[in-house]
Design a protein that fits this description.
The protein is an alpha+beta fold and 196 residues long. The chain has a domain of 111 residues. It contains three helices and nine strands. The strands form three sheets. It has a four-stranded antiparallel sheet. The chain has a three-stranded antiparallel sheet with strand order 4-7-8, covered by helices on one side. Strands 5-6 form a two-stranded antiparallel sheet. Strand 2 and strand 3 form a beta hairpin. Helix 1 runs antiparallel to helix 3. The protein is flat.
């Protein structure tokens, strides 16, 4: 009877440990990925090969890991779209209406014969980014143009950066735990052999 109780306790301990790892994975890995994907940091590059201007835009997850790159072979137009933020009235059935703050959105749109690249840019930075891209397309040079585009400073950099640190801590902690487990497994036979 005591063996069954010990086995149940061991299973419950493993189940609790597994649920802790799962919660840690969701909070420390999936949540930061989600945050940095919905409000990405992008790296835009415009190049001139002597004949045509080409473009590429790379989006980053966890602010440092590239996960999606779009390329455009021939750029013919740079434009933008913008939706101003402000206060909107929110109505719900059975409740009083209330006003909520809505964030503004903007995007750099780089068009060419093969399609377009849409890069989310903070409304705070859209004028500067568009001006630089338009100036380069109008007067290209071989040095090219590279710039970072932040979709939303509060979400992308502040929240995304802080949550990405959780990912770093989770990965480091997991690596240490795996290393300790391997070390104990490898040292176990040596301890038994030296004890005999």
């Amino acid at each position: 009877m005591a063996g069954t109780t010990g086995a149940q306790a061991k299973r419950q301990g493993r189940a609790g440990q597994l649920s802790s790892y799962l919660i840690g994975f969701v909070v420390c890995v999936l949540l930061p990925a989600f945050i940095t994907i919905i409000a990405p940091l992008s790296f835009v590059t415009l190049r001139y090969d002597g004949e045509v201007v080409s473009a590429s835009a790379t989006r980053f997850v966890y602010l440092v890991v590239p996960y999606h790159t779009e390329r455009l072979g021939e750029v013919s137009l740079v434009e933008y779209s913008e939706r101003a933020g402000g206060r909107e009235r929110q109505r719900r059935v059975g409740e009083d209406s209330r006003y909520v703050h809505v964030e503004g959105e903007a995007a750099l749109i780089i068009s060419g014969g093969a399609g377009e690249i849409v890069v989310p840019v903070s409304p705070v930075n859209i004028d500067r980014v568009v001006a630089q891209a338009e100036a380069f397309v109008a007067n290209p040079d071989r040095a090219g143009l590279s710039l970072f585009a932040v979709a939303n400073w509060k979400v992308s950099i502040i929240a995304g950066g802080l949550f990405s640190l959780l990912t770093l801590l989770y990965v480091a902690g997991s690596a240490i735990a795996i290393g300790r487990w391997i070390w104990r497994r490898a040292a176990g036979p040596r301890r038994r052999a030296s004890a005999a």
